[in-house]
Design goal:
This protein is an all-alpha fold and about 70 residues long. The chain has one domain: DksA, coiled-coil domain (Four Helix Bundle (Hemerythrin (Met), subunit A), Up-down Bundle). It has 3 helices and no strands. It has helices at about 1-30, 50-55, 60-65. The longest helix is centred in the first third of the chain and has 29 residues, at about 1-30. It starts with a helix and ends with a helix.
């Protein structure tokens, strides 16, 4: 039973890591785009501090909070 639970936890962690990697790769391909750094919802600049914490961000904090409610 513990092995099954461990496997599920490990698979979820792997899926989360793959998703994060995919978002980082997308951000790297967009870095030269003139719209890079703009929120995809409100089109306002995303603060530099947010990029330092979450370099894959494509939403400002306000829009991210509104979407995840």
């Amino acid at each position: 039973m513990d092995a099954i639970q461990s496997k599920s936890i490990n698979e979820a962690a792997l899926d989360n890591s793959k998703h994060a990697l995919s978002k980082m790769e997308r951000a790297l391909t967009m870095i030269d785009d003139p719209d890079f750094g703009l929120c995809r919802e409100c089109e306002e600049p995303i603060p530099f501090a947010r990029f330092m914490i979450m370099p894959e961000s494509d939403l400002c904090v306000k829009c991210a909070e509104a979407i995840h409610r």
